[in-house]
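>> received
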Amino acid sequence: MLNAEGLGGHAGLASELLAAGVEVVFRSVEELAINVGPEGVCIRETVSGRDLGDFGLVQVVAYRRPTTILLNVLADYLAARNVRAVNVAGIGAPTKLFTYVRLANRGLSVPSTVYLPLPLLHGAFHDVALQLDLPFVLKTVTSGRGSRTSLISSEEAFTEELRDSRRTRGFLAQELVPPDGSYFLLVLGGHAAFALRHSRIGGGELLAKSGWEDATLVDLRRLDPEAREVAVRAATSLGYDIAGVHLVRHWTTGRWCVLDVSPNPPIASGAYTADRVSAYSAYLERRLALDPDVTGLRAQS
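>> returned
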């Protein structure tokens, strides 16, 4: 049970359930840690280190901060492991953390990522650095106003970033993926319709941006088919019919790694606008042709 301090104070409840053969564990949302990596996703409670996937049922009793930004993450993780959930609805706008968890649950390669609640993140530099190596990237969980991405090379830099943590809703520590060229693909209606390549490597910014002024247009016919497939799978996994997918090819593993998936990709701004608008126009025509209501109206007219 998460955020159930009131119930946890009743020793009789735990004893009664234990007598019936049911073990109950009471934890706070600030006692959860999330790891996303090549082996998949693990959400564990940090008191005894148990994986939430090993429980028979997980219930959220109260929704104090930061519970709300983790609900869709918990819902996706528990569903992927067939764990019954009570009052764990996948609601709310998708955060960066949800994106990585959903993609990893669907078998896609993403940067190794660590989420710790702020009280646990303070003082965790050495453990995080050992897991992710140096330098690593520190980014806010949510996008939008106040979001930022920083490259961390020392404990001093890490401490400085956390000093202003009250203005954020939490941080993700993330592996800096060794790249060999990065790509932005525009996925429209289940098809990769447009691609840009960015050859200049910009450290932490590589993980934060999905479009560049100095990018070059890519002939989709010459792009690795696996890259196109990964981009489409990433958009489909998140339920996006329109998405901008940022990919990088890991120079040591050769795998295409998903850095970002945006449901609001730049279409009418930036480089090669005419090409993107043309691809978008063709997508809209296909969508309208498949819409039975629109098709019926055209036939009547």
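>> Residues 273-290 form the longest helix (18 residues).
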